[in-house]
Design goal:
The chain has 340 residues and is an alpha/beta fold. It has helices spanning 16-28, 42-51, 61-66, 82-91, 106-119, 134-145, 169-188, 275-278, 280-296, 305-324, and strands at 7-12, 32-38, 56-57, 72-75, 96-99, 124-127, 151-159, 192-200, 213-220, 224-231, 239-246, 249-252, 260-263, 266-269, 303-304, 328-329. The chain has ten helices and 16 strands.
Length: 340
């Protein structure tokens, strides 16, 4: 399926995220090059082409998926389109790395699982990039090797400086907090069983229906607890971090930018402004791992379609909890053999 062992990638959606994936795959990852892009904004697609010499801009995303210049697809278009393009990739038997969320609802994600299972081939991967972030993988190794004993509490912080749209709690949960659901499941190796979510509007100037700051309590594997703050209008910068409190100690992520700045009677470290900056290395590692898996016919070591579905199930329970003000059970079914 490849030419000269090079995976030829088509990128659907060339906003900030899609363009970053395109540039990483074309220039920073070995074994791949971008051969086609699509964006509903033709000028934006041309800008991505300019950064990926040799690629062409196509006018139809389904044409890109079917194109014989494309071996594998990155889906970084708006969330509502993910299900259609993912199903089209499966129908064309082409692997896809789909940005989170995998779909707009658990029911849509179930259609993807059914189609992939019927095909009998694991073709769909989900872009939960924290799984490739060196700070997170260091904590994950400690959680899994048992040296700190059993993890008891997962304390997470997820802050965005500002959001380009007016947000409901449901959007914050599906679009932003889905990273935290995946991180908790992956770091602890446990499923989320129950959730309890409360939310507020952080600034009086925001529209009254805004819920931009959430406090989420999760119960995993029966006895591990998680407390996660998701705050998408924190103003000062972008930060993501986790501390695992375990039986014999704790493990916490550090911040990657370590330059110590002294200025105006202050000493401290700078903070990233948004995720493309904070997770620069993670996105490259993720893309390289995806290309390596495709080149060797191996299974991608990151998130699968099942993980995308599980995150959406937790998200649905969180949205319900926020609405009714009560804890809600997730009730996730057992992971099918196909995804183990
Ligand atoms: C945002 O919605 C994203 O798409 C990013 O992946 C994430 O890191 C960020 O915190 C979200 O709010």
């Amino acid at each position: 399926m490849t030419v000269d062992n090079i995976i030829r990638v088509g990128v659907i959606g060339t906003g900030g995220m899609g363009t970053r994936h395109a540039v990483n795959l074309h220039r920073r990852v070995s074994g791949a090059r971008v051969t086609a892009v699509y964006d509903f904004d033709a000028a934006r697609a041309e800008q991505a082409v300019a950064q990926c010499p040799g690629a062409v801009a196509l006018r139809d995303p389904l044409e890109l998926i079917a194109s014989d210049r494309v071996d594998a697809v990155v889906i970084a278009s708006p969330d509502a389109t993910h299900v259609e393009y993912t199903l089209a990739c499966l129908a064309a038997r082409k692997p896809a790395l789909c940005e989170k969320p995998l779909a707009a609802s658990p029911a849509e994600a179930q259609r993807i699982l059914q189609s992939e299972t019927a095909l009998g081939q694991r073709l769909i991967s989900v872009g939960f990039m924290r799984r490739f972030d060196p700070q997170h993988t260091a904590v994950q190794r400690l959680a899994q090797d048992g040296s700190l004993g059993r993890p008891i509490i997962y304390k997470g912080v997820h802050r965005n400086a500002s959001i380009p749209y007016s947000v409901s709690g449901a959007v914050v949960i599906t679009n932003s907090a889905s990273h935290d659901f995946d991180a908790a499941r992956w770091l602890l190796g446990q499923e989320v069983e129950e959730v309890f979510v409360r939310g507020v509007r952080s600034h009086a100037s925001f529209s009254p229906d805004t819920t931009d700051l959430l406090l989420m309590q999760l119960t995993l594997g029966g006895s591990t607890m998680a407390a996660i703050e998701v705050f998408v209008a924190a103003e000062y910068g972008y930060e993501v971090g986790v501390e695992l409190v375990c039986e014999r100690g704790t493990a916490a992520t550090t911040q990657p930018e370590l330059a110590l700045v002294r200025q105006n009677r202050l000493r401290g470290a700078t903070v990233a402004y948004e995720w493309l900056e904070r997770f620069t290395d993670a996105y490259i590692e993720e893309a390289q791992a995806w290309v390596d898996a495709l080149s060797h016919g191996a299974i991608f070591p990151g998130a699968s379609a099942w993980d995308g579905y599980a995150a959406l199930r937790v998200a649905a329970a969180c949205i319900q909890s926020l609405e009714i003000g009560l804890p809600v059970k997730v009730g996730l079914e057992e992971k099918p053999l196909f995804y183990r």
